[in-house]
Sequence to fold (315 residues):
Amino acid sequence: MLSGQVISTCYLLILGVGAAPADGAEADRWSLEEEEQEQEQEYGEPNMEHEFDMELKEASFPFQKFPASYLKKALAEGVDWTLDKRGVVTSPKNQGHHGYCGTFSRVAAAEGQYVLHTGQPARNFSVEQQVECNGSYYDGKDGGFMTWEDYPYIKGAYKPDKKVKPPCKFDKSKVVKNYGKGITGSTSPSKQGEDQAAAFLFHNGPVPCAINAKALSHKYRDHDMPEPFVNATACKKVKGSINHSVLCVGFGTDPVKGPYWKIKNSWGTHTSGKKSQFIKLARGVRCGKLGGTFGSIQVYGPVAGYYEASEDVIV
Fold:
């Protein structure tokens, strides 16, 4: 996987100057009026397809198709990793005015794999460490991850027009316990179709995924549900290339709105109040190109544990 490279060309939500309004009616009004205007402001219109293709080429283990019986089981049951009590999905973060969405999504995926495979409690890993140090921390070769708390993200530390960043402050003594132990490589469900990708997520936990960020705009969301939902009709209005990276944390089928993906974004919470943390988007229609291109996750131990080799479904 792209262990040392920070994908820094993604779509940026420019939130403007000043503090976010308090939750409540004023926040809702601000979201409705301001987000639709500011959602369109970007530092260019990047195409991240190449970055994801590079990551796929660097994956240690090729994808292995899930058998039909396992696909049927996974698609019927669905999964929401945000509900896992172990903390597989940590709290949403805010990338601020910087194009580090790829780093945020890959770090979030690493957090999930760490919980699922080490027996250690959930931790918030340091994104700032990846931004400043550019090391091979995902696979543990350079010492592993420090926590967000020990190495916090500094949204105001960089000038978008000047490639200036603070020096690396990595402290090996503060790396989370057992990180990197047992990691043998990486694998990805990219370019395998939405059903196979869904089965991979069902089997293995959250995965970084590519999208056109305009699909996340307030104007395309239904707000008549506990979490915002971008339906299939709204998805048809989203045009453009892949320009943003998020974390796919689940999928399922709503009885009214149909199949969906559930994603975790990195734009904080105040762009639409608390409801902007997680969003559901129609599945099976390539909504904003979601569902086709994915990042990699670490493999702990034999890769066989990440796939189902036979038609026998293990319950």
